[in-house]
Specification:
The chain is an alpha+beta fold and about 240 residues long. It has a domain of about 90 residues: Beta-clip-like (Beta Complex). The protein is built from 4 helices and 10 strands; from the N terminus they run H-H-H-E-E-E-E-H-E-E-E-E-E-E. The strands form 4 sheets. Strands 3-9-8 form a 3-stranded antiparallel sheet, with helices on one face. A 3-stranded antiparallel sheet has the order 4-6-5. A two-stranded antiparallel ribbon has the order 1-2. A hairpin with a 5-residue loop joins strand 5 and strand 6. Helix 2 packs antiparallel against helix 3. The longest helix has 16 residues. It starts with about 30 loop residues before the first helix and ends in a 25-residue tail after the last strand. The relative contact order is 0.12. The mean pLDDT is about 75. One of its GO terms (molecular function) is RNA binding. Pfam families: N-SET (PF11764), SET (PF00856). Its main location: nucleus. Keywords: Chromatin regulator, Methyltransferase, Nucleus, RNA-binding, S-adenosyl-L-methionine, Transcription, Transcription regulation, Transferase. One of its GO terms (biological process) is methylation.
Length: about 240
């Protein structure tokens, strides 16, 4: 009752011919090293020499999305603020290297970790956009919670950016009567933003400062910037 298994033949192209017509029904069998080497050589030659009539497609660039975003923003730039919006677009994709640490002016401060040329965008002041009524309520609440400093920046008559609990490193920038930066309000896609510009060249490990320009009040806030032309108070 023993049947001899028929010897498996090879096709003209060198590959093994399946007796049952399907490789899955015959189980596992080992491929000769010669056949395997021949197959690998053929696959390498096909990969190295693509057909001449086929067009080689290059993989899409990784920054294609960024470029489309830049083109979309550039198309919306009109008027005299083109340079400001262009710089803001560059700032989004190439952020300045900054760090915050203890400052001799007040508590924490923001310092440059790379040289920054004059008239460059340093950082955007990020926070929650709130109305004046909400700002007054939050200021009282922060005092009740024991928060000594509130980081609120006025954009216009109706809008204030609150970075006390939701902001970035820009809230650590201290005031100076002789600052190396200044704040400017720009409009990007019908939305107002506050961006910190450099007034002069800023060296590595130099603290970034700007003038808060607080309104004049009876209760004075002492200034500790230590500059030669220090006014003595922030307001």
């Amino acid at each position: 009752t023993s049947f001899s298994t028929p010897k498996k033949k090879k096709r003209d192209d060198g590959m093994r011919e399946h007796v049952t017509g399907c490789a899955r029904s015959e189980g596992y069998y080992k491929i000769d090293k010669k056949d395997k080497l021949k197959y690998l050589n053929n696959s390498r030659a096909f990969a190295e020499e693509p057909p001449a009539d086929t067009q080689v497609r290059r993989p899409p660039l990784l920054n294609a999305g960024r470029r489309s975003e830049q083109r979309r923003l550039l198309s919306s730039f009109t008027g005299s603020c083109d340079s400001d919006l262009l710089k803001f677009n560059q700032l989004k994709f190439r952020k300045k290297k900054l760090k915050f640490c203890k400052s001799h002016i007040h508590d924490w401060g923001l310092f440059a970790m790379e040289p920054i040329a004059a008239d460059e965008m340093v950082i955007e002041y990020v926070g929650q956009n709130i109305r004046q009524v909400i700002a007054d309520m939050r200021e009282k609440r922060y005092e009740d919670e024991g928060i000594g400093s509130s980081y609120m920046f006025r954009v216009d008559h109706d809008t204030i950016i609150d970075a006390t609990k939701c902001g970035n490193f820009a809230r650590f920038i201290n005031h100076s009567c002789n600052p190396n930066c200044y704040a400017k309000v720009i409009t990007v896609e019908s939305q107002k933003k506050i961006v910190i510009y450099s007034k002069q060249h800023i060296n590595v490990n130099e603290e970034i400062t700007y003038d808060y320009k607080f309104p004049i009040e009876d209760v004075k806030i002492p200034c500790l910037c230590g500059s030669e032309n220090c006014r003595g108070t922030l307001n």
